[in-house]
């Protein structure tokens, strides 16, 4: 794994409700 990033925030859903989100991004190299 080259890079791992977690974004932790509170934001609106498409329906307008507030929700706590955990969004993950991973960059990896296949060997």
Question: What this model shows, in words?
Answer:
The structure is a single chain. Helices cover 0% and strands 65% of the residues. The model has no long low-confidence stretch (mean pLDDT 94). The chain has strands at 3-12, 18-27. β1 (3-12) and β2 (18-27) form a beta hairpin. It has one domain. It is mainly β. A two-stranded antiparallel ribbon has the order 1-2. The chain is elongated, with a radius of gyration of 14 Å. The chain is built from no helices and two strands.
Summed up:
The chain has strands at 3-12, 18-27.
Span of the ends, CA to CA = 11 Å
Overall average residue pLDDT: 94
Question: What percent of residues adopt helix (DSSP H or I)?
Answer: under 10%
- DSSP strand content: over 45%
Cα Rg: 14 Å
Class derived from helix and strand content: mainly beta
Q: Which residues form runs of ≥5 with pLDDT under 50?
A: none
Secondary-structure element pattern, one letter each: EE
State the shape.
Answer: elongated
Helical stretch count?
0
Tell me about the largest β-sheet: 2 strands, antiparallel
- Summed up, the domain count is 1
* Spatial ordering of strands, largest sheet: 1-2
What is the number of beta strands? 2
